[in-house]
Specification:
heterodimer; A: about 500 residues; alpha+beta; Immunoglobulin-like; 2 domains; 3-stranded antiparallel beta sheet; 17 helices; 13 strands; B: about 220 residues; 5-stranded antiparallel beta sheet; 6 strands; about 30% helix; flat
């Protein structure tokens, strides 16, 4: 147990996490660059997470917002390339939290919080020990002094990666707790409506999935199964790689089905917390076999092979002058980035706040249109129905069995999924024989909170074979129709 | 706990004896580990009990993704009525350029699950005030006297692409309902909506606006429901 926390390891895995996370966050931040004034400054409309509490950071002027966001971009780039990595991670953590707390609606979703945890934990690692400017500078220095021993990167403490692993497990546990509380998750309805949602819904694949009721149940139950299984099984060495692969597939599936911004990429990076040096070897050997990649991964002796893993290397001590000079260069670069960023914001002035000459024209609206809007006309009755299905068996708000042809011993079930919230309504279902005569009918009152209505028409040997129609009416208005064939046994 | 990679040669135990600085670092690391784990366990426990908002910090430690979705889609518009009886759109305005969502057309107020709450209403009024301040010259002669926050909504099934909609509802719903393209739009050629299917509207907030000139020459706006 002691070694579980206190061991040290090669910094390669955390270096990959550092670079991947910084790359994703840099991409996400770059997309927000034109909106800095709107999201974070008093010239726009910051939406803080906790208004009027110590968790509401000071609001920023447009100038300060542009400067700090530029610094955030610089820190992200510095983390990406591993330049003054720990300092850059600390700067990034502070700015990421500050700006995020100012705009939780547009910038501080749960994936941002996960990223914040990862940045915090990365500051305790030696993630800049390899594949970084720091490493490159050290190597050059070692080469220049012929008496120096061959440089090996200092090891990194294992415990921050352990906490990332635990973070991932608690994310899955928390998510599954949320899901099992909701009855409509087990029926697939929650997933169906999420896939159609304007905020987080999906493209064509997600929309198609939303039309497949049975697949929705399978996907929902698989999600619950995975989120319970992962935190339990990932610790078993025999299953570790399998669970990582399951995790990768799970998040790729989420990314394919829904619009979750950078949530899936961040979770894929967090999954890397369960990778280790042998996995890197495995991936490298796989890549080596590829025709065009072999030269980039030449041998086990080169950069991707293991670090000497005995004890943590003693930290190298730079001279005070060298440290100060390095910090000065870093500060100058950061100041330059801020200056350039501010100049760009001022030059583009997307919101017209820097030259102080705002006077927009308002968009005029047609009076008739506004009166229609203010009349609050109710939806038509058919718009309160989301889906209608028929089948010979009904269970857990889903249809099974026959759908097209029934025999006289069957019961034809009709399931109606209602849109929330609907007013109190009266639903009438009629079974019409081929000659148009009503064979059977039901009248059901629908309460406001009701999500489903089910009706069963029991067929009998007295009924003539042929094409039957089920007509659904709400408050006397035809809204839907289903047909089926009654055949002889 | 059996960790998969503790036994591997990829990790090495820390050497001893250690100098004082190393011991101090290890103690600090131990404190961080314990604090992190305790906080994680505490908020996971609160979440298990269903008390996910037990503390403001809970947002940073509660993983409640998939909290719930409605079966209707919504977006929000603010309409201003001037003293002269004209109507203008106050929200979204040129100040709301940050759009996202699947269609890339949602503002941040659209992302809020509800605008009926006090906090969300305050944000909305702040957004409207921002627009009013950006357009003072425009509204000098005919100032805004009333503001309506209206919500456009429609059943989520209308979000389906045409081919999927036809597949699912083509033989179920009555013909007039299915053929959405032929359904007459209530708001033709209006900046209020760009939807190609029927939508409906409800008024979420209806406030009177008063403005007074401050001693520094700037306008101050007050909203009264």
């Amino acid at each position: 147990m002691k070694s579980f926390w206190s061991a040290h390891e090669s910094p390669r895995v955390v270096a990959i996490i550092r670079m991947a996370l910084a790359g994703i966050l840099l991409f996400d931040a770059a997309l927000r660059w034109p909106y800095v004034v709107e999201l974070f400054s008093t010239a726009g409309l910051p939406m803080p997470l906790h208004v009027g509490t110590p968790f509401e950071p000071p609001a920023l002027s447009a100038t300060l917002a542009a400067l700090l966001f530029s610094l955030k971009l610089f820190a992200l780039f510095a983390v990406l390339i591993g330049w003054r990595t720990r300092l850059s991670l600390v700067v990034l953590f502070v700015l990421f939290g500050w700006l995020g707390l100012l705009d939780f609606i547009g910038s501080f979703k749960k994936y941002s919080v996960i990223a914040l945890h990862m940045l915090f934990l990365l500051t305790f690692t030696n993630s800049g020990g390899v594949w970084s400017v720091e490493r490159w500078r050290s190597r050059n220095r070692d080469v220049s002094t012929s008496l120096s021993p061959p440089f090996s990167p200092p090891l990194s403490p294992l415990w921050p990666r352990r906490l990332m692993q635990i973070l991932l497990c608690t994310i899955y546990l928390g998510a599954v707790i949320t899901k099992v509380r909701r009855r409509d998750f087990a029926t697939g309805d929650l997933l169906m409506f999420s896939l159609l949602d304007d905020r987080w819904g999906g493209g064509w694949f997600g929309q198609w999935l939303s039309t497949q009721p049975h697949l929705l149940v399978l996907a929902s139950m698989s999600t619950i199964f995975f989120e319970i299984a992962f935190p339990l099984l990932i610790w078993m060495p025999q299953l570790r790689r399998s669970m990582i692969v399951c995790g990768i597939l799970f998040h790729l599936g989420l990314a394919a089905g829904m619009s979750l911004a950078v949530f899936s990429p961040i979770m894929l990076v967090l999954l890397l917390a369960f990778a280790n040096e042998s996995d890197l070897q495995w991936v490298a050997s796989g890549l080596r076999r590829l025709p065009m990649m072999g030269k980039h991964f030449p041998s086990r002796d080169s950069s991707i092979t293991r670090a000497p893993l005995t004890t943590p290397s003693p930290p190298r001590t730079d001279s005070a002058g060298r440290v100060v000079w390095g910090l000065l260069v870093y500060t100058a670069a950061a100041a330059t980035a801020m200056g350039l960023g501010y100049a760009q914001q001022r030059s583009a002035d997307w919101y017209g706040v820097f030259d102080g000459s705002i006077n927009e024209r308002l968009v005029p609206l047609n009076k008739d249109n506004v009166e229609y809007v203010l009349s609050e006309e109710s939806p038509e009755f058919h718009e309160y129905i989301h889906r209608i299905e028929i089948g010979s068996r009904v269970s857990n708000f889903h249809m099974f069995g026959k759908r097209e042809q029934f025999t006289s011993s069957d019961v034809v079930h009709v399931l109606i999924r209602l849109v929330q919230e609907h007013p109190p309504m009266e639903l009438q279902a009629m079974l019409l024989a081929p000659d148009g005569q009503t064979s059977d009918q039901f009248l059901i009152p629908l309460q406001t909170a009701q999500t489903h209505a089910t009706i069963g028409f029991r067929l009998s040997p007295n009924m003539k074979p042929g094409r039957y129609r089920i007509v659904i009416q709400i408050n006397g208005y035809d809204v839907a129709e289903q047909t089926f064939e009654l055949v002889k046994r | 706990m059996a960790a998969s990679d503790t036994a591997s040669p990829d990790v090495a135990e820390s050497a001893s004896p250690r100098p004082l600085f190393t011991r101090a670092k290890q103690f600090a690391a131990g404190c961080v580990i314990v604090a992190y784990l305790l906080t994680t366990v505490f908020f996971l426990g609160r979440h298990v009990l269903g008390d996910s908002a037990s503390h403001r910090v809970a947002y940073f430690w509660t993983w409640d993704m998939f909290p719930g979705y409605t079966s209707t889609a919504t977006r929000r518009v603010a309409i201003g009525e001037t003293t002269g009886g004209q109507f203008v759109q106050l929200y979204p305005s040129a100040a709301q350029q940050f759009h996202w969502g699947v269609g890339g057309d949602m503002t941040r107020l659209d992302m809020l699950p509800s605008v009926e709450g006090e906090r969300a209403a305050a944000w909305f009024l702040a957004a409207v005030q921002e627009t009013l301040e950006r357009t003072t010259t425009t509204t000098t002669d005919d100032p805004i006297a009333r503001i309506y926050l209206v919500e456009e909504y429609w059943p989520l099934r209308y979000n389906l692409s045409d081919d999927l909609y036809e597949d699912v509802y083509g033989e179920t719903l009555i013909k007039a309902v299915v053929d959405l393209a032929q359904t007459k739009q209530a708001l033709e050629e209006s900046p209020l909506t760009n939807r190609t299917h029927p939508t409906h509207w409800r008024v979420l907030l209806d406030v009177a606006v008063e403005r007074t000139k401050r001693s520094d020459g700037r306008w101050e706006w007050t909203f009264q429901p």
